[in-house]
Specification:
Elements (H helix, E strand, L loop, with lengths): L9 H11 L4 H13 L1 H18 L11 H8 L5 H29 L15 E7 L5 E8 L4 E6 L10 E7 L6 E5 L5 E5 L13 E7 L14 E6 L1 E2 L1
Antiparallel strand pairs: 1-2, 1-8, 1-9, 2-3, 3-6, 4-5, 4-7, 7-8
C-alpha cells in the first residue's frame, strides 16, 4: 500500500528546483558552482529545463503575490524545514508528470501529419585548467550554450598573491587570445558571452588564465604575464 507520494532523489530534486527557479539566492549560487564542477549535475539541470519547457509555452508571465511563498510555508507545520522540502519535491514530481502529459496531448492532437520532435539541447562544454608547472587543477570552467555563459570557478587559495590579478582568456582555433575578464581567487563567476565571441567557443578551444598586474595585461593583443593555467573545452 502506498505511504504517500514518491519524492525525487536529492540531486534530481535540486536540479529540478534550480531549473524551475525556486531556489533562494544562496542556494542558487551554490547550484551554479556545482554545475561548473559537476558535468552530470549540469546535465540534470538542462534535462529538467527541457522537460519543463512545455508547461511554459504559450503561457503569459504573471507575477506571483509578494507573500505567496510565506503563505504557503505558514500553511505547513511550524518550523518544519523538512515539510517545506517534501512539499517542494512533491510539487516538482507533479510538474514533471504534468509536463509529460502535456507533451503527449500535443502529439496526439497534431497527428497526423505533424509529429513534434523537440531539438536536443546543445551539450555543455567543460574544461579543467591545470597549472603549467605541476599539472594540478587550478580552475574549472563550463560553457552553457543555452544561457550563452561561461561559468568559471577558481580553486586558488585567496590571499597568496595580493599584488597580481588572474585574467581569463579564450584561445580559439585561430590561436589569437581574446580577453574575457578577471576572476578572484577562491570565487566562482558566471560570464555572459558577447555575440561576437559565440562562434569561437567550440570544442577544442582553450581557456587560459594569466597572472597580470592590477588593471590586467599591458599588451593589447594577449597576456603580458605568465600563463598560470590552461585547459581545453570538451564534451564529457
Amino acid at each position: 500500500m502506498s505511504q504517500g507520494p514518491d519524492l525525487l532523489p536529492e540531486d534530481e530534486a535540486l536540479a529540478a528546483e534550480h531549473a524551475l527557479g525556486v531556489l533562494s539566492g544562496p542556494e542558487r549560487a551554490a547550484a551554479e558552482v556545482r554545475m561548473a564542477r559537476d558535468p552530470a549535475f549540469a546535465a540534470q539541470v538542462e534535462a529538467w529545463r527541457a522537460r519543463l519547457a512545455p508547461l511554459l509555452d504559450g503561457v503569459a508571465p504573471v507575477a506571483p503575490p509578494a507573500d505567496g511563498w510565506s503563505r504557503i510555508e505558514r500553511a505547513l507545520p511550524a518550523n518544519d524545514d523538512r515539510a517545506v522540502r517534501v512539499w517542494r519535491r512533491t510539487t516538482l514530481g507533479a510538474l514533471s508528470l504534468a509536463a509529460a502529459s502535456l507533451a503527449l496531448t500535443v502529439v496526439l492532437a497534431t497527428r497526423p501529419p505533424v509529429v513534434l520532435s523537440p531539438a536536443a539541447p546543445a551539450p555543455i562544454l567543460n574544461a579543467s585548467l591545470t597549472g603549467q608547472a605541476d599539472g594540478a587543477p587550478l580552475f574549472v570552467a563550463a560553457y552553457d550554450p543555452a544561457r550563452k555563459a561561461l561559468i568559471v570557478t577558481s580553486l586558488v587559495q585567496p590571499g597568496k598573491d595580493p599584488v597580481h590579478v588572474h585574467e581569463l582568456w579564450l584561445i580559439p582555433a585561430d590561436g589569437r587570445p581574446r580577453a574575457l575578464g578577471y576572476i578572484a581567487p577562491g570565487t566562482s563567476k558566471s560570464m555572459p558571452m558577447p555575440a561576437p565571441m559565440l562562434p569561437l567557443i567550440r570544442q577544442g578551444a582553450a581557456i587560459a588564465v594569466s597572472v597580470e598586474p592590477p588593471g590586467g595585461s599591458t599588451k593589447p593583443d594577449g597576456p603580458s604575464g605568465p600563463i598560470a593555467a590552461l585547459g581545453k573545452l570538451s564534451q564529457i
